[in-house]
Automatic annotation (TrEMBL):
It is an enzyme of class 4 (lyase). This is Delta-aminolevulinic acid dehydratase. Keywords: Heme biosynthesis, Lyase, Metal-binding, Porphyrin biosynthesis, Zinc. It holds the Pfam family ALAD. Its EC number is 4.2.1.24. It comes from Lojkania enalia.
Amino acid sequence: MSFSSLVSEIAYRNSEKDDMRSQVSRARSYASTAATSVSISGDISSQLHGGYSHPLARAWQAERQLTKSMLIYPLFISDQPDEETLIPSLPNQYRRGINRIVPFLEPLVAKGLKSVILFGVPIAPGAKDALGTNADDPKGPVIKSIRLLRRTFPELFIVADVCLCEYTSHGHCGILRDDGSLNNAESVNRISDVAMAYAEAGAHCVAPSDMNDGRIRAIKLKLIEAGIAHQVVLMSYSAKFSGCLYGPFRDAAGSCPSFGDRRCYQLPPGGRGLARRAITRDINEGADIIMVKPASQYLDIISDAKEIGKDMPVAAYQVSGEYAMIHAAAKAGVFDLRTMAEEATQGILRAGATIIVSYFTPEFLDWLSN
């Protein structure tokens, strides 16, 4: 082959390669244009996947994320100093006497536990009467526990639940009339005295859960009169609904009513308007924090609470029945326990809660560290 023929052959082959590259480029451009026209209809902002393609980016999409400081862990304190009894209907939860509390809490505090809420459980014979006399007994489980925890864990925030149901022989959340109905005036006077006893013992926060009308104002006034209103948080169970989700708690605390039910003072499940009125009332009466209970079935009420009390912390109590259901379903293989606990808690946060009372707190102390 002559030199000129060789040059012509190379030029021809290069031209073919250029044509092929051009065809491939045009094909790619066509495919890209076709794909774009199919996947994007209208505004480019409809493309969202890139914003949560990475685990950290997904976390950034949350309006608020769970932290250890948001959690309050419920403790059942028995009047039997050395008791440590598993509660069958409440997985992994125990009634503990005062001698068992510190060894149990030490590792949790080391992991970052910030707050507990105390429920007294009188078991001794004759510990209950019609007036709930032992609720504010200086030698009772709650007041002794407050003082012990203040000494032992100075940084731990101590909430004392305030109610009479664990201490009354009839199991109701106040003092009754002869016909068995709730005497609101006498109940409020008694509840506010109990709250004062807990505050004076050193509780950082008192949390009346009885749902008697006007108890927030009564407690606030007594705190002011005693000169300690500036150092005690008043957290109201403002929207506490009646229902079937409290069974395991009542097993733990021995607080099941001996007759009737609590529907006349706890809110009816459909009473959204009543809940809004109760939240507004308790804010006006001096509550520092408002609580919704139960949590998962009342996400709309949590959202309402955040709207009404937009400048206030909103707490939600994931109650014993909610916790037990998650455990039961996980045990049956319906879903993974951790995954469901986290999803349920995210829902509560998303609805507007900034504080969560949860029996999952010990697990979250580990999960949030990993």
